[in-house]
Prior knowledge:
By secondary structure, this protein is an alpha+beta fold.
Amino acid sequence: MIENEITTRATALFGVVDGIYKMLTDWGMSPVLASWLDEIISMTLLFLLAYGVDLISRFIVHRIIARIAKFTTAVWDDIFIEFKVFRRLAHVFPGMVFYLCAPIALKSVFWVTLFEKGALIFIVFAIIRSIHSATKAMAKIYSQSEDYSNKPIQIIFQIVAVIAYFIGAISLLSILLDTSFTTLFAGLGASMAILILVFKDTILGFVAGWQLSSNDMLRQGDWITVPKYGADGNVEEVSLYSVKVRNFDNTITTVPPYALVSESFQNWRGMQESGGRRIKRAIIIDMTSIRFCNKEMIDNFRKIKYLTEYIDSTEEVISKYNQENQTDNSMLVNGRRQTNIGVFRAYIQKYLENHPEVNHDMTTMVRQLQPTEKGIAIELYFFTKVKDWVYYENVQSDIFDHIMAIVPQFGLRVFQFPSSKEVVYHPYAD
């Protein structure tokens, strides 16, 4: 309908120019000069007409659409105005004027062909720019949504923009070479290998970005660690070409998206979304300090807050067992007895179970690992309630400060290399 209206108005307008040509020839002007003057006047009117349409379209966008967007409750229209989507799309109409009116206004085949191709190129550029602006606007709209704020939405819209640029480039070539779009697109298959080589990084980023997005491997705000690239921090931006990571020292590391797909990296999101942050650390006990508990040790352990109930119940079980089996208690090797390291493990377990910063809904375990030449490891496996890095480290340090300080209370020694028990310091040594 718009095309018919433009054609009708143009026919009436440029019909006047034909009258000017006849008037000039009647005045005695040569037909060649009159034809050139007629073409110049037609081109001038054509440019003025296109400029007028452009002014009208911009007026509609700025005055009408922009004001309507301000009074609506929706956010998307304001963002579209911000990114000039409607303004750039309005440039299509002057191009349509050139394309539709050139055959009516101009008589020369050369000028008609030139103006038509120029108009088509202008329209393609306007559409590509408007699509690019629309993808940016859509990325911002979805990033403000709670459901999509942490997802790499920007990658998806960048892929759409790349596809639009690719189709636009083929369209421009088809216009310049006067070849159909399908024929040119089919002919690109022969040179696809060269295109893949030239745009290798873009294609890899395209595939990797799609995988990151579809598999939810990475979100904006995630804490990731990529040792190969020295990245250890929060993801600030996920794009088609790079993943920007702000490290904890405030430096910026840029990681290619395909590196995150082809190689391993650590994402701490699962920990942050869980009920706690895991602590898995061991202390090494000197095996030569392990022994059976005598009565004096048992009496001392019974005075410890977290061990009173444990000592009483364990001693009752052991005494009953030894009586039933008529154990000769003159030899410590006979029967069942408590060891200082066993009581130590029980204390740590009770200590963690009563610690206010430990998440008691998650696994809490104290276990003995395989002995090595350095001693025997007592591993603590538990989760803190807080996940903040600084607070987490403070809680972890406080717990192990306490545990290492009370080790001698159980008749045990912490192993360190070289052992302080084996090295004698001489104050006069060189």
